[in-house]
Specification:
Elements: H1 2-11, H2 16-28, E1 46-51, H3 55-65, E2 70-76, H4 80-94, E3 99-101, H5 108-112, E4 119-122, H6 129-138, E5 142-145, H7 153-166, E6 170-172, H8 180-190, E7 197-205, H9 221-228, H10 236-245, E8 254-261, H11 266-275, E9 292-298, E10 303-309, E11 320-326, E12 329-332, E13 337-340, E14 350-351, H12 362-371, H13 379-393, H14 401-408, H15 410-419, E15 425-426
Parallel strand pairs: 1-2, 1-4, 2-3, 4-5, 5-6, 7-10
Antiparallel strand pairs: 7-11, 8-9, 8-15, 9-10, 11-12, 12-13, 13-14
């Protein structure tokens, strides 16, 4: 995967230096600060191409096939078995098979050249998300990308520039943003129950040791990232909901961060136990610490405590958590507890469910039955539904390229902080100065 990514970067039609120059020019022009025009509407059905038909891409494709406003017209994968399986699933759902685009690592360009594709779902390994999304936007396709959006600052800026210059819709498929408790808290925030917010805490603490290795002990793309990288390598599940609560890029922005990590122990001990001392997997040295904590300060003075740990032994139920502190209320998902000053009857946490009916999210009120059948607590339904509706209605994506870049920039910036002895790092303004005036 890493080799394929490097080959892409070396052989793309527009050089990365060209991308940087284009981004710098856009930043220098006064017009870059103007709000972009609303994207043109896409006529139904939205003709969707899927790049990456592994388990995740095929699952999301299946969800898209349930929407009458979507026609899956083309699929692409370098794995012939995965591609054939996805084609048969689509045939079974709609009666006619989509086009199958296979071949080498650049076969997806053949899909992007097709006239029967309006939009693409990018569900490939994470290092390929940004390169493929950027090419898709420049090819005139709308993009729904799996998380994270990018792994380098250069890719973050390239993605923003491609979305701006193409006029196409980009959306990050961050499903945690659509969990019912997350959207319930958002409604309570908008109603003023929290007052001014000062602190948030969130984390992705998911035992992913087993999926760092293939059955033969070789590293998967996740294992390669943990071998080569430090810092928070998967920030958007945890940071995304908190960023939306705080109005990041819409009244506030991420300004600076510092990171600190632990030593590496979990993955190396796991490899030794699973494969034995004589196996090559037991000799791999991983750069990532078992746990990384990143402290982020926003322009409005809110502090966010962001944790990442995929290397430690943990129960699966502890995957993602959120906490929020305001002047008049506090919430912590780990105990499903909320306390509202002047409204809660005693100095005890109350279950969030107590307020569920009063602050029911409109999206869940409209789509509850459909969302309950989807994975990730309904989030997988909403990322597809919201993307399709944005295209059909000609409205901006709810998680656009500037949001995706800001959340994903934590990957390279947390690593940079660690390399500099936990020194502060400035977080770029990917809205190019529009963060105070962009609408929610």
């Amino acid at each position: 995967v890493m080799t394929a990514t490097r080959r892409f970067r070396d052989s793309s039609g527009l050089s990365r230096r060209g991308f940087i120059a284009a981004g710098a020019l856009a930043a220098a022009l006064p017009a870059a600060r103007a709000a972009p025009a609303a994207p043109a509407k896409v006529a139904a059905p939205v003709r969707l191409g899927v790049i990456g038909t592994g388990s995740r891409g095929t699952y999301l494709m299946t969800g898209a096939l349930r929407l009458k406003e979507v026609a899956v017209t083309a699929l692409c994968d370098t794995n012939a078995a995965n591609l054939a399986r996805a084609v048969e699933i689509a045939r079974g759902a709609r009666g006619a098979p989509p086009a199958a685009v296979g071949g080498g690592p650049f076969a997806y360009r053949d899909l992007l050249a097709r006239d029967d594709v309006d939009a693409v779902l990018v569900a490939t390994p994470m290092p390929l998300h940004a390169p493929m999304s950027i090419e898709a936007l420049r090819a005139g396709k709308h993009v729904l990308s799996e998380v994270a959006a990018a792994t380098t600052l250069e890719e973050c800026w390239d993605l923003v520039a491609a979305a701006e210059q193409s006029g196409r819709t980009y959306m990050l498929a961050e499903n945690c943003c659509y969990w019912k408790p997350v959207l319930t808290i958002a409604r309570m925030l908008r109603a003023g129950l929290f007052g001014d917010c000062t602190f948030a805490e969130c984390g992705y603490v998911h035992d992913c040791r087993s999926i760092q290795f293939a059955a033969d002990g070789s590293l998967t793309w996740r294992g390669e990232m943990n071998r080569d990288g430090r810092g928070n390598l998967y920030p958007t599940h945890s940071l995304g909901p908190v960023a939306q609560w705080l109005g990041i890029n819409r009244g506030d922005r991420l300004a600076t961060l510092v990171a600190m990590d632990t030593k590496q122990a979990g993955l190396e001990a796991y490899a030794l136990r699973r494969f034995g001392a004589d196996h090559r997997a037991a000799r791999v040295k991983f750069a990532v610490g078992d746990s990384t904590t990143t402290l982020i300060r926003t322009a409005r003075g809110v502090c966010i405590d962001l944790r990442y740990d995929t290397c430690s032994a943990r129960p699966h139920s502890s995957t993602t958590y959120y906490a929020l502190q305001g002047v008049t209320a506090s919430y912590d998902s780990r105990i499903d507890g909320i306390w509202i000053d002047g409204r809660s009857q005693a100095l005890d946490w109350e279950p969030l469910e107590k307020y569920a009916a009063e602050f029911e999210p409109p999206l869940w009120k409209k789509w509850d039955a459909e969302a309950r059948t989807a994975g990730h607590a309904g989030g997988d339904f909403f990322v597809i539904r919201e993307f399709v509706d944005a295209l059909l209605e000609g409205r901006p994506a709810p998680i656009d390229a500037a949001d995706a870049a800001a959340w994903s920039a934590i990957i390279p910036l947390s690593a940079a902080s660690l390399r500099a002895g936990s020194a502060p790092q400035e977080i770029p303004d990917f809205t190019r100065g529009r963060w105070e005036t962009r609408s929610a």
